[in-house]
Structures are given as C-alpha cells and as structure tokens.
Amino acid sequence: MVVIRGGAAPPGAGQRHRGSAVDWPGWLACAAALAGFALCLLGWLAGGGAFALPWAPSLDLELSFALDGLAVLYGLLATGVGALVFAYGTRYLSLHLEHQRRQAVERWRFWPWMALFAVAMVGLATAQDLVLVFVFFDLTAVCSYFLIGFDRAEREARTSALMALLVTVVAAVAMLVAAVLLYAAHGTFSIPELLARAAPSATTTLAAALLAVAALAKSAQVPLHFWLPRAMAAPTPVSAYLHSAAMVAAGVLVIGRVHPLLARSEAVLTGLLVVGAASVVVGGVLALRRDVLKQVLAYSTISQYGYVVMMYGMGGAAGNGAAAFYVLAHGVAKSALFMTAGAVTMATGEDRLSRLGGLGRRAPVLAVAAGVASATLAALPLTVGFFKDELLFTAALRHGPTTAVLAVVAAALTFAYVGRFWGALFLGPPRGRVGSTPVLLVAPVVVLAVIAVAGGLVVEPFARLAEDAAGVSAGGPVALSPAYHLDARAENLMALAAWAAGGALLALPRVVDRVSRAVAVAGERAGPRRAYEMAVHALNRASTALHDREVRDLRTSIAAVLVPAGVLIGLAFAATPTAGAYVVGAVVGADWLILPLLALVVIATVVIAVAKARLAVALALSVVGFALAAVYALVGAPDVALVAVVVETMLTLVFVAALARMPRAAPERDAGAPARVRRRRRDAIAGGVAGVAVFASVWGFLSQPAPDSVSAEHIRLTPAAHGSDVVTVIVADFRGLDTLVEITVLLVAVVGVATLARRRLW
Amino acid sequence: MILAFALAAAFLFGSGAYLLLKRDLIRMVAGIMLISQCAVVTIIAASLGRGRAAIAVAPGDPVSDPLPQALALTALVIGLATVALLLALVHRAVVVFRTAEQDRLAATEAAHEAALERERRADREEVGPAPEEAGPAEEEPADGGRAR
Predict the structure, then answer these.
(1) Sorted alphabetically, which Pfam families does this protein's record hold (chain B) (predicted)?
(2) What is the pTM of this model?
(3) Looking at the partner chain, which of B44, B46, B51 has a beta carbon nearest the beta carbon of A640?
(4) N or C, which end of chain B is more exposed by having fewer CB within 10 Å?
(5) CB-based contact A312:A392 (threshold 8 Å)
C-alpha cells in the first residue's frame, strides 16, 4: 500500500483516534455507488432500457426513466467518481471532524446527503419527463445546500450554502416555467415527445432560453457564476463531487438532454456560445491569480464548463460529441485535483498556494498522480485530456474562425492556470511542515490518474461513451474518432499554439497578475455577486418591515389577511374575461317575499355598522339573523330555518347577557380628533372595497352553477338510510363523521366558555 | 334573484370587514358574526335546485338542493360556538383589563411583557451565564428575580 509520509511526523500519526473508527455510513455509500456504477455499465453494455410508472395521470406526469447514452455517461460519472470520492471522504471526514473537535456521529449529517446527491444525479440523468427533471434538479440543489453548509458553525459556510441554494433554485424556476410553456403548447411533459413535436416558434425559443438559463445558473456560468467559488466552504469531498460529477455537471446535463430543443433556435445557440466564451475567459483569468487552492480549482471549473457550454452552442454532431467527451475527461481530472488539494491541506494544514511548495519530493506519489490529472486538464498527450481538446478544436474549426481563436485562448488559459497550480504545489523550494498523508486520501487520486492515462492510451471506450451520449443531444448518430496524428494538421497546430501561449502566460507572471487583479477588482465592484447581496439584503429588509407592520396590533394582522386576499381576487378578476359571466336571475313566486327580507337584512347590516350603542348592535344582529331565517324558510330549507331561529335566539341572549355583565364602555374621549376621523374614513373605504370584491366574486360564482349536483344521489339513497328528510340524513348519516367533529368543536367551545365565564379563572 | 343574494352577501361582508377594523372588541365580534352570516347566505344561494323542502321526496318532484342546506347547518352551529367563545373571551378580557378597547389592551399587554422580560432576565442572571457564552462567570446578584 502507498503511505506517503514526510517531515518528522511518525508513521500513521493521526490515523487512529478514538471516535473515528471505521466510517460505516461512508463505506455503505461507497458500496452503493460502486453497485450503481456496475449497473450503469451493465445497462450500457446491454443496450440501455427504459421504464415508466404513472405519477399523476391527471396532470400527464409520469415517472419515466431511460438509460440512454447521455444517462449512461452522467450515471457512470456520478457513480464512478462518486465511489472514489466517497472512499476518500470516509477518511477525510473523520479527520475533518477531528480537526473541528466535532462528534464522529455528525457524519450522519453528511453521508445521507452525499448518497442522495448521487441518487439525484443518476435520477436526473435518466429522467425523461421535464417535471421529473426539475424535481431531481432541485433535489441536487437541496443536497448541495446541506453539504456546503456542513460546517454550520461557520458563518461563511452558511451564507455560501444559502447563496448556492438561492441562485440555483431561483434559476431553476425558469425550467418549471419552460416546462409549463411547452406543456401548454404541446400537451406533454415527456422530453422525447416534446423534442419530436416542438417546431421552431416563439414559444419554443422562449422555453429553450428559459431552460438554458436554469442550466447555466447550475453550471455556474457568467454572470451567475459567483456562487461556485463561495461553495468552497464545503468539505473537500463535497467540492470534488460537486464540481466534477454532480451539481455543476447537472446544468450541462440538462443542456445535453434538451439540446435538440435549444437547437431549434439559432439565437439560443449563439447565446450559449457567448455565455460559454465569457465564462471561459472570466473563470480562466480569475483562476490565474487565486491563492486559495480550492478557489483556483473553482474558477477553473467555471472556465471548463464554459468550454462545454460553448461546444453545445456550436451544436451539430461535432459540438455535441466534443461536449460529451469533455464532460467525461473533465470529471476525471477535476475530481482528482480537488482530492489532491484536500490531501495537501490535510497534510500541511495550509490551503494557500503562496504558503505551499516543493511537495514533489515529500509526497511523490501524490505529485505524480496530480501531475497526470493536471496534464489531463491541460490537454497534454498520453492523457485522455489531449483528445478533449482535439475534439474541441475540430468542432471550433468547423464552426468558424472566431470560435477557433476562442478555443485556443481557452486552452492556453487552462494550460497556464493548471501549470501554475501544479508547479506552485509540487515544485520549488520546500515550504511548510508536512504531516502524513493517509492512503485513502491519495489512492483515489491515483486511480483517477490511471484512468486518465489509460484513456490517453486506449481512447476507444471513452469515445464510445461520448458518441452514445452525443447521439441523444444531437438527435442522431454521432461518430467521434479521436486519435494521435503526427502531422501538421490544424488541430495539432492549435494545440501547440495553446501550449505556447499558456507557457508564455506562465512565464510572465507580472502581466498576468495585473490583468487578473484588475478583473477581480472590477468583479468585486460591479459584479453580479454585489447585485445578489443587495437583492438579498433588500428582500430581508422588506420582509422585516412587512413583518413589523403585520404584528403591530390586531388591526394590522387583519389587514395582512384581507389586503393580499383582496389583491389576489382583484388580479383574478383582471385576468378573467367577465363579459356574459353575470346573470341577474329571474324573480318568481315566493321570491317577491324574499326581496324585502333581504332589503331588511341590508338595512340592519348598515345599522350595525354605524350604531353607537352596543345594545343597538346586538338587536340589529338579531334582526339580520331572524330575517335570514325567514329567507331560508322561503327557499325550501325548513331545517336551516329552524336551526337559524334557535341559534339566533341563543346568540341574542348570550350577547345581551355578555353586554349586561360588562362595564359600560368608556365614552370616546377624542371622538372628533382628526386622527380618529381619518381612521374611520379609512376603515369605511376598506370595508367598502371588501364588500365590492365579495359582491363581484359571489355574483360571479352564483351566476355559473354547476350542471348537476351530487344531491340527486343523496335523494336517491335517502330511503335506504331509513329517513325521509334528506338534509337530516345527510347530516346524521352521509356526513356523520363531519357532524361528530362538529359536535366535538361545540363541546370544546362550551368548555371554553364555561371556563372563561367563571368568576375566578383558576 | 342571484343579484339580490349577491348584494345582500356583499353588504354583510363589507360591514363585517368594516367592523373587524374597529377598536371595540364587541364590534369585532359583531363583524365576525356578519361575515359568517354572509357565508351561510352564499351557501344557501348556491343551491342548484329550488322547490319543495327535501322531505319525503317523490321521484320527479322539484326539490330544494339538500346538500347546501346540510353545509349551512354545520356553518350555523360552528358559528354559534365560535361567537360564544369569542364573547366569553371578550368578557374575560373586559373583566381583567376593565376595557374592551384594543389599543388599551395592547398597551397593558406590552407593559406586562416588559415586566415578564425583566423577570426572565433576573432569572437568567441568577442561574449564571449559559455554557456557550464566554462572558464573565459572575454577575452581581439580581434583586428583582423573585417577584413571583
């Protein structure tokens, strides 16, 4: 086994501690990921498969999954990288918790989310229903929230977690809107059917743009990239997973999944190209001068996914194929580099490039493995990374000269920052103390490095995977033929140019420094992160102000219910066509008696509102009650009428009794004060508005009766219940349980009244 | 007829809302009563059929829709319970605070809260600083801590 040790640290120091025994949940997650990997691989070799279960048939929702090429690619990535990262995490997390003096049991706050993360990713990769995709998409965001905020005692971790959640989840709403738009236009949420049905149109373009926005925010593309560097507050296994195979990959996965839809509109593709290029440049330039290890890698991720987005923007078989291959190669390299950063930090206690150096001698295995991973990212030959750039250059050349130049710039930037990262870590004079590096923190990096080299030697399986995946995104078969060509073809020249330019950037640290710092400062000053923070603070303030207003006193609490309800009703009216929706209704027979009774009700109601004396209020209330009881009798509802009479009698008695036992109201001292008058006027207006709103809605809903009632069934079944009064039978039999609950409510009220009416409460 | 019922319901609700905004607790209870009357009227007016009372129905007879009537019955009885409880509460508040004015009630409540908070603080100081607080271990003993 490989044990890297150095300095004066005794062998195996820090490996066995009380409380950090074997991390069972971690190994369980690792085993599950391995099993998932094997299943994905077998499924791929068997030619895929699909199944669907009904979810909510009335909404046309289906739990439909399919293991197609794209699903296999991301599934293998999520489970394969997942298994390695989880294995790494079993050791890392124990050390991490130990350093922070936290209980080992806290790993139960970690592994379930990690496992769910992997499940959500596989689910997202295989889901074939747009709403299902949305659910898994948000599930990854929720998992990332808890994982980024794992060190919850630190403010930084909490705000970062919230930022990641808000940016990705709010943007994800765009995806739901797009799903609804597409459903309205095509009547299905199923992605294959949508791809078949959607023709180029304004709706399709809008939906495609919305889907792209959600995906780009997830993939941390400019200008919504700022959450990713902050997400570094997470423990390293989370970062490694989040950057290479999960969260961030979810964005490009969605782009790959709906790419045929995006390709219906040239504007959307161009937008992808622009956003991707901007991310490549911004991420790359910022990565050049970051000092914190994980921040270099974070900005590099922004830049690398910028490549992928760019390639999806180029479209076509070449672009899609190159994008799929790129995701694969990047996932392998980036997870290895993150785990390297974690291992280095664990061994030295330092997380800044400026305080590290010369680790090559002291941790040779890690240095070599990390070197291979860096070479993969920098697209050096003999690694799988070389082919990712070859395919990129081919696609860019096919798209046009501008993109070709951009591709070279991107590759040069990558070469420069990856070179700087590896060089600063492992070359130069030794700096800092180095403790031991546990095997488990190095072995996964070695495994990934071996995979990268294997891919560099035999690229066939990787190319097959990417071809299958690109076939889904391109909507047709894709053929990729990455290979080494020892001639002066354009791709090779571009690669050479990129290495030369990257080398030049490495050789001119001062110029690079200045540019990168200027960009960073500009980003701080006017960047989107500032806008985000201002928005969050403004929302917070608004919410506090609203809350303070609401809880000030009873009136404001009532207003907090009535005003939004009124606004909603008003909006509903504004949005609904009302022509012909209102019916006056005929007046026949007994209705002539009802009309004066209702008029009496109205008059008594007005009296209640304006009465000065409380007794007048009580009497007018009973007038309303008895008049309504008469109305009920006239519309053929004798049961209701009888109950109403009883209830009104009791209420009047109770009311009068209560008034009699109450001290006289104090005379209004300042009845004429201007504040009071103003308030009374405002109350009257509020009441008037409420009345008008209720008038409009009640009239509208009475004008549109349902074609038939369930009452017919009730009437038919009444003899079977051994009764003849249908209402009685409904109350006592058909809805007997309701009545039982109602009696309970009544009992509770009686107990309450009896308690409150006692002279001494307790 | 539909218009008439809608108008009556609108007046009931409008007055109810107006009364709810009053300071006098009795008038607030009256407002709640009016709003529940509005609900019952609306339910009854929403009957789909009109005719005889639905008692001993012969097949084919036009009858009043019995289902809204059953719902209205429930609403009436629950309304009675609610209003009785509310009145009892108001009564108790008036007996204790000698006022049915919201503002004065709120002022009394605020004063009471402040007193409670003083007591709580005194209790805390007596117990000593919480374990996670790294503040000074000893505070001068509070004298108002045993108000109860």
Answers:
(1) Oxidored_q2
(2) 0.74
(3) B44
(4) C
(5) no
